[in-house]
Task: structure prediction
Amino acid sequence: EVQLQAFGGGLVQAGGSLKLSCIVSGYTLRGNNVGWFRQAPGKQREGVSCSMDSFGTTDYGNSVQGRFTMSRDNAENAAYLEMNNLTPEDSAVYYCGVGCYLDYGKIRRYANMNYWGKGTQVTVSS
Result:
């Protein structure tokens, strides 16, 4: 069974930074894609980043480009998200997910990889 757990969320002041961690079990990240997604109240789930190991690339949503940096540690089967210059618009529940891909520049996730697991709340104050 695939399990994903995101950790590291919390309350931070606008302009601050926060680092999230994702631990994956039941699925090998090495050679596979993993990304970050978020969902704020009243909004659709949004793709934040997608790391494609086979291509050696990492893509980001337009709203976080230049501010967020995703990394991975295949030996630890984990992924991370460094968030800088946070704004209240970044407030959301953040999830990691395997099987991300790009669809005309948008970060999405394969339907058969729909394992969301437990997200972590990020709240940015004004």
Q: What stands out?
A: The mean pLDDT is 95. The two ends are 40 Å apart (CA to CA). The CA atoms of residues 45 and 102 lie 15 Å apart.
